[in-house]
Design a protein that fits this description.
Elements (H helix, E strand, L loop, with lengths): L2 E5 L1 E4 L8 H13 L2 H7 L4 H14 L6 H14 L4 H17 L10 H10 L3 E5 L4 H9 L10 E5 L10 H11 L6 E5 L2 H9 L3 E5 L15 E3 L5 E5 L5
Parallel strand pairs: 1-8, 2-3, 2-5, 3-4, 5-6, 6-7
Helix pairs in contact: 1-5, 2-4, 3-5, 5-7, 8-9
Length: 241
């Protein structure tokens, strides 16, 4: 069955939605883990790194934590899959450089890129809202197996510039930033709590359920669901007026 929506913009989650969580966990997480120590030792004065270090100290209430302690905290959060902003910031820096060097190439499910191109051509604006940092998102879309997809995307949002993904206020913030009425925004994610928050903010939402993903068995609650992007038909509301 095809789900049909009229909207002005689509907001995309990444892990479990556009891309395999397994790739992130099995490839990107170990890549960042192996490079935390060097980043903290060599670039602690870089503004983004320094801000992340300060955030780790604040979140752990350890104002005097040194690089070794901070690395240990980052690795613990990584093991727990914590969506901590400083962890995502530092991962984003490391991943961006890995993508730029060609060490890494991002993953997209086969149905995703054709759908994004179709929606973009139809006049829909595409945005990304992921727990991964904006820097990581930018690198991800720039370094896809099908080349640079960033020109398809109108904006990038993370837990730092929008807020936690299971809080309705974060979705209100994104709607205000994009200038799109909430009722004309469609959010695609595999996580029920995120879908709930988007709907609470007045958005439409579709749960994407892909076999093998962590939330597949849990389902998407009362939300409409699709197994792939080609099961979702979206018409730009601008083209209907």
């Amino acid at each position: 069955m095809t789900l049909r929506y009229t909207a002005d913009a689509v907001v995309l989650d990444i892990e479990g939605t556009t891309s395999a969580t397994g790739f992130v966990v099995d490839v990107l997480y170990p890549y960042s883990r192996s490079r935390f120590a060097a980043l903290l030792a060599e670039r602690a004065e870089d503004p983004a790194v320094a801000r992340a270090i300060a955030q780790v100290r604040e979140l752990t209430d350890t104002p005097d934590a040194d690089a070794v302690q901070i690395e240990k905290t980052l690795n613990t959060w990584l093991d727990e899959d914590r969506k901590a902003t400083p962890l995502k910031t530092l991962q984003g820096i490391i991943w961006s450089e890995g993508f730029a060097r060609g060490d890494l190439v991002s993953h997209f499910y086969d149905d995703v890129v054709p759908a994004l191109r179709t929606w973009h051509t139809a006049g829909l604006r595409l945005y990304v809202y992921s727990s991964g940092s904006v820097a990581a998102q930018r690198a991800w879309f720039t370094s896809s197996p099908e080349g640079d997809l960033l020109p398809l995307v109108s904006g990038l949002y993370d837990t730092e510039n929008a807020g936690p993904k299971q809080e309705p206020e974060s979705y209100r913030r994104i709607a205000a930033a994009t200038g799109v009425e909430p009722s004309r925004l469609l959010f695609l994610s595999d996580r029920p709590g995120e879908l709930d928050a988007a709907v609470a903010a007045g958005w439409h939402a579709v749960g994407v359920r892909r076999p093998g993903e962590p939330y597949f068995e849990q389902g998407v609650g009362d939300h409409a669901q699709a197994g792939a992007f080609d099961e979702i038909s979206i018409t730009s509301s601008r083209s209907t007026t």
